[in-house]
Amino acid sequence: MSANFGRQFRLSIFGESHGGGIGMVIDGIPAGFPIDEDAIAYHMARRAPGNDPTATARKEPDRVKIVSGILDGHATGAPLCGIIENTNTRSGDYAQLRSRIRPGHADYAGFVKYNGYNDPRGGGHFSGRITAPLVFAGSIARQILQKQGITVGAHIAAIGPLCDSRFDPVNLTADALTALHSLRFPLLNADMETPMRAHIDAARMRQDSTGGVIECAATGVRAGVGSPFFDSLESVTAHLLFSVPAVKGVEFGDGFAISQLHSSESNDPMRVADGHVICTSNHNGGITGGITNGMPVILRAAIKPTPSISRTQQSVNIETMENTDLAITGRHDPCIVPRAVVVIESALALALCELLMDDAATHFI
Ligand SMILES: Cc1cc2nc3c(=O)[nH]c(=O)nc-3n(C[C@H](O)[C@H](O)[C@H](O)COP(=O)(O)O)c2cc1C
User: Left (φ > 0), alpha (ψ -120 to 50) or beta: where does 257 sit?
Assistant: First the structure.
């Protein structure tokens, strides 16, 4: 397995959904950097399960025990290790999944790759639970970014076919992004909450699940962040986003839709305003040549429907190599999207932090 990310902000995650715990080691936080543990807990609570009808009933406080790396509220410069206990496991729910494979989940691919030794309980290391360490690391990255005047935020852009409004790609503000953090079902158009929740609930009642899209942005990013060729901001961010379980699509700016424009439409016109270069549109999502151009960075991630559903599905028994039917028991998110909002934000925060730290011109303390 590859559980490591980054050359500057070096993150290593560990754990399995129903093991003793999950956690992370972060190496590279500048010594003396002040760390706000309340802010970390705030973002961890946004992802924690059991707090909303759209989420799994598994209740986990996701409190992080800091083992090393912080003293008197400041990074010591040593690797920061944090551990989150798994307190609410019901591994019995997964007894049948040792041999019977969940369609759409990682069970078959993981079984083949790890010769059947992978932990299948609750998805093991493939569980959405493993995004908790990502949110922890992302919360520290956000604090580093905040010192640079950068804010990251996201909203639910779609649930199934139902769409929220889009971010204003030119005039987006840090306050608008921060306001979204406190919403359990973050939308720009609050009128969409009732129909979207009804769509999720209707799927659940049919023993099914639904997916959606998350739109995420960063404001305050100066021009010049990103190291092409392979460490362009798009490459590094996409690497992190596609590491998040259930993400099946990523687009920056207008994304796939930009291919339907003419250049006279997709080129963002440039002006000088108050001594700064700005664009009057933002079809490129604040990134050109893999490097930020000073406009808001904007991306969208497509999240698939939760694979574990209680409706009977065709599957296989990997021990007997026979066809079988499978009705999955256990506690699952009827829709992953609301809990994944903070995870997508964390991926963008980590990518920006990694590339800013790579830049000698950036001062962190
Ligand atoms: C926050 C979050 C929560 C998730 N919850 C569940 C869940 O309750 N049940 C489930 O089957 N999959 C859940 N997933 C998705 C699976 O982990 C994922 O679909 C699986 O590992 C297969 O990977 P892939 O979808 O990237 O192909 C969740 C993912 C995230 C990010």
Answer: alpha
346 in a structural domain: yes
In 10 A of CB 316, how many CB atoms? Answer: 17
Residue nearest to atom 9 of ligand 1 (CA): 332
User: Does some domain include residue 363?
Assistant: no
**Domain-embedded: residue 365:** no
CATH number of the CATH domain containing 219: 3.60.150.10
> For ligand 1, atom 30, which residue shows the shortest CA distance?
128
pLDDT tens-digit map of 59-118: 778 889 999 999 999 999 999 999 999 887 776 666 677 789 999 999 999 999 999 999
E strands, the chain, are 4-5, 10-15, 21-27, 64-68, 70-71, 74-75, 80-85, 151-159, 162-163, 212-219, 247-252, 270-273, 276-279, 287-288, 291-292, 297-303, 313-317, 322-326
Substitution site in 207, 306, 308, 332 for ligand 1 pocket (most atoms within 8 Å of beta carbon): 306
Q: For 280-312, how does the pLDDT look when each residue is reduced to its tens digit (9 = 90+)? A: 999 999 999 999 999 999 999 999 999 999 999
Ligand 1, residues at Cβ distance < 6 Å: 56, 105-106, 123, 126-128, 131, 244-246, 304, 306-308, 332-333, 336, 339-340, 343
Domain that holds residue 152: 4-357
* Domain count across the chain: 1
pLDDT in tens, 256-274: 999 999 999 999 999 999 9
**What backbone phi and psi angles, to 5 degrees, belong to 193?**
-65, -45
Q: Which atom of ligand 1 is nearest to the CA of 105?
A: 22
Ligand 1 centre to CA of 245 (Å) is 5
204 within some domain: yes
- Predicted confidence (pLDDT) per residue in 122-169, tens digit: 888 999 999 999 999 999 999 999 999 999 999 999 999 999 999 999
Nearest CA, atom 20, ligand 1: 105
pTM across the whole model: 0.96
Q: Residue 158 C-alpha to ligand 1 middle, in angstroms?
A: 18
Indicate the pLDDT class of residue 49, thresholds 50, 70 and 90: confident
